[in-house]
Specification:
- By secondary structure, this protein is an alpha/beta fold.
- It folds into 2 domains: about 5-110 and about 180-300, Rossmann fold (3-Layer(aba) Sandwich); about 120-180, Histone, subunit A (Orthogonal Bundle), CATH 1.10.20.
- Helix content is about 50%, strand content about 10%.
- The protein has a 6-stranded parallel sheet, with helices on both faces.
- Helix 3 (about 75-90) packs across helix 4 (about 100-110) and helix 11 (about 240-245) packs antiparallel against helix 12.
- It is globular and about 50 Å long.
- The termini are close together.
């Protein structure tokens, strides 16, 4: 087993894309994206998809390969990503995975628990309930059906809430009863590298990124997607705040300030998730490339 998956992770706006490209050049390999917000081709600015110039520097996979109208689960990503990784390993001993979506990274590196098949009509019903009654209605359902998972989950993450409800309703059992946390064996070595910084630096980088998004045309991008606002893919930071502005609920300055605040909160949740993973070796965001490469080579097979 001399195949190595290099995982680059950390909070949003910390520089994961840049480091991933540098390492791809260093090892002559390709990149798998594990950023669930960047899967959708209709969303570019608000999800900080790598620029054309960045994509030209290294081959990326799982970037804008789906539509917001598609239903795409983490289980499907696990299957497709593993297939692509195995294909890439036939050409190189290294593959790089870059992203801040902890669940998607865990799906590939550790495996997911087995869940029952979901009735598509249940999914459609929940999506309509969310559209008609909002997130609080779904939160109350989950609290009643699975109080254990309700206490663990980020109750503001609509996707996670809906996924848990799908399983509860389809199976008649609590979602938490399917969580065994049994790590699966993978036919490759995983090397996890985390990038971080002082909280104030992370928050400043986030604020600057939001300003750049606004300058780059985030408002126009969200306007073009307004009629699809009920779709789950669009219930995400940077889009839902602008929807409130377009609804005349908020003024633009307040919407922008809320994007910054909610992105900072998202980064905090990311760090909480990743810091539980003892397999991650952490580097400061300004660490030199050589030190990261040295760590990777030291842990390679």
């Amino acid at each position: 087993m001399n195949k190595n998956l290099i995982v680059i992770t950390g909070p949003t706006a910390i520089g994961k894309t840049s480091l991933g490209i540098k390492l791809a050049k260093q090892f002559g390999c390709e990149i798998i994206s594990a950023d669930s917000r960047q899967f959708y081709k209709e969303m570019s600015i608000g999800t900080a998809v790598p620029s054309i110039g960045e994509l030209e520097q290294a081959t990326h996979h799982f970037i804008q390969h789906k539509s917001i109208h598609d239903i795409y689960t983490v289980g499907e990503f696990e299957k497709e990503a593993l297939e692509k990784i195995n294909e890439l390993f036939t050409r190189n001993n290294y593959v790089i995975m870059v992203g801040g979506s902890g669940l998607y990274i865990d799906a590939v590196t550790k495996g997911l628990d087995s869940f029952p098949e979901i009735d598509i009509e249940i999914r459609k019903k929940l999506q309509k309930e969310y559209s008609d009654k909002g997130i609080e209605h779904l939160q109350k359902q989950l609290q009643a059906l699975d109080p254990i998972y309700y206490e663990k989950v980020d109750i503001h993450n609509t996707h996670r809430i809906m996924r848990a409800l799908e399983v509860c309703i389809s199976s008649g059992k609590p979602y938490s009863s399917f969580l065994t946390a049994t790590k699966k064996t993978r036919p490759f070595n995983t090397i996890k590298i985390g990038i971080t910084a002082e909280r104030e630096i992370i928050y400043n980088r986030i604020n600057q990124r939001v300003e750049i998004m606004i300058e780059d045309g985030l408002l126009e991008e969200v306007k073009s997607l307004y009629k699809y606002r009920s779709l789950n893919a669009l219930n995400t930071v940077g889009y839902k705040e602008i929807f409130n502005y377009l609804d005349h609920t908020w003024d633009l300055d307040f919407a922008i300030s809320e994007i910054k605040k909610n992105t900072r909160r998202f980064a905090k949740r990311q760090l909480t998730w990743f810091r539980k993973d003892t397999e991650i070796t952490w580097f400061d965001f300004e660490a030199d490339l050589d030190s990261v490469v040295l760590e990777i080579k030291k842990r390679s097979l």
